[in-house]
Task: structure prediction
Amino acid sequence: MAELLSQIQSPADLHKLSDAQLAAVAQEIRDELVKVLSIRSAHFASNLGVVELCLALHLTYDFAKDRLIWDTGHQIYPHKLITGRHKTFRSIRTKGGLMGFPNPAESPYDLFMTGHAGSSVSTISGLKAGDDLLGRTDRHAVAVIGDGAFPSGIVFEAFNNIAGLKQNALVVLNDNEMSICPRTGGMAHYLDHCRATGLYQGSKRTLNQILNQIPLVGEAARTSLESLRDGLKAVFKNGMLFEEMGFRYFGPVDGHDLAGLRKILKLLKTQTGPVLLHVLTTKGHGVPQAAEDPVTFHSPPVFEEVGPERRIVAMKKGGAKAYTDVVSAAIHAAMAADPKVAVLTAAMCQGNKLEKVRADYPTRFFDTGICESHAVAFAAGMAKAGAKPIVDIYSTFLQRSFDQIFQEVALQNLPVVFTLDRAGLAGPDGPTHHGVFDVPYMRLFPNMTMMAPGDELDVEPMLRFALAHNGPISIRYPKANLDRLDRTGDPAPIELGKAEVIDWGEDGCFVALGTMTATCVAAAKRLHADGIHMGVINARFVKPLDRETILRAVELLPLVVTVEEGTLEGGFGSAVLEAANAAGLDARNVLRKGIPDKFIEHGDRAELLADIGLDVDGLVAAVRKYREECADRDSLSGYAVG
Ligand SMILES: Cc1ncc(C[n+]2csc(CCOP(=O)(O)OP(=O)(O)O)c2C)c(N)n1
Ligand SMILES: CC(=O)[C@@H](O)[C@H](O)COP(=O)(O)O
Ligand SMILES: [Mg+2]
Result:
């Protein structure tokens, strides 16, 4: 059969295809996913699982007009492939290429740029309300949400609202029994129960078996679907939880049976009021290894060899050790040493490399699910009870807990430790995942102490320090391989609000936050070769700042360059300027390097850092430029400014 996928310019083209051709398209989509993974790491198993669901939705609705939101958005690949992006698909997750998440700049079929889980039901509700207000009552609104994202508190806020408003909205629950790791909690049990009891009363038939007896088109289809609709509620006893809230629950249905899905969606399109369709899929469907091990295949390494029938013969081996590795090892060691220490993850056990902690200390390991705000309030409760909780979380996802950090933790001055992973540019995941705002949003709050390790040797002592500290405290580190600073002697011990001076230089000084220290050391070395002597300070603390050391540099040196892998707006450099101002210093010799006030695109982390001058070349160039400009100004006015 000729290749079909490449001929699909828009979802309208799907309507020209027979059932057999649509089945072939589904296979071609899976083949394309395997091809992309043979070039670079990307989200995989979730995409394999939604192929038929994606086709069925686009065959039932017209999303050029109707509204569709894929919750989180990591399962958007099949949707991209059939909405005019097949030709550019292999550029996905590269700089300048397609984004690995929905992106309205790429296509009108992507309504919101997302990557954080849980908001889809709220946004379709808002879209529906806005459309109704503006007289666009002809538009259907559909959210597709996974069972991992489903227990997020915001989903229930949206359900409550939609049911109250009696909105015509369809929520498709894609239940594949997995988050990134196996899903946890009471909702998981409830969905398992629905799965187990999804049989037509009095017989052993599933909803799909009934649907499959109904033709897809024609008068017979219409009358059968109508009678089925009337009968369904009486015969399926599932989903009472949602029914009692005001949603009509349908399912569970087989999410890989394209014909069955099309029939039920056709039926649901005629429903009024809020509807929940419970769809069962297999994460990794179509690649047996991915279906067997969806954790590894959520976002696997590059496939080096693929055999017949999409059998993955070899994958790229793991690379160098990363900060996440030493942090998780330090957490493990702290838990071994002190039975009061506990760790919390919001569904990121794998990303945070906490599997060994989970296995060895199951009673002190808490996976709250994708519920970051709950996790922080939960940690506050644990701390109040006398335990020592570590909230191990990605910087970007902690944004969801802003108010709990304020009220439950900082305001109570409770000893909660935050280990902020992926604090910096996250690379190919892009703007939704870059962890570049935590410095400003954490430093706002009184009582908060904030640290960042200058290299791998700082990590374990910092965690020990944090666990002994009597108040909220955070440690931020990026998604990066480990650095080891070239010190003369051992690292200085961690002391509250004390920076570590790596080197002094009479021409100026880099004051580096976290892993930017190694980049600054390399830049200083390069400048030294040109006779420019720049020192390097490993700041270690954002709050409290080492005023004594840093302000001495501001006072005495011709140039101080603050360097951080975080936004410049209210960031570490701003903290230095504020401190200098409070001390009455003229801080025009302070140059701030960090993330500019714009959203940074997706791409390779090193490439993105270089683009904004946060690499060795960029820092060297910044120092040279500053010195040249000062020299020019000196000759004009005799006055050097920053
Ligand atoms: C707020 C937030 N927290 C955590 C994540 C990380 N994350 C991305 S996908 C995912 C699992 C989602 O599970 P599910 O919704 O069931 O989708 P599936 O991968 O099973 O298709 C998690 C935890 C995120 N994207 N957003
Ligand atoms: C979709 C999502 O949010 C996660 O899958 C995320 O992409 C994981 O990032 P890491 O690969 O850095 O763990
Ligand atoms: Mg899932």
Notes: The domain at 52-286 is CATH 3.40.50.970 (Rossmann fold). The chain has a mean pLDDT of 94. The pocket of magnesium ion (ligand 3) is lined by residues 146-148, 176, 178-179 (CB under 6 Å). The chain has 24 helices and 19 strands.
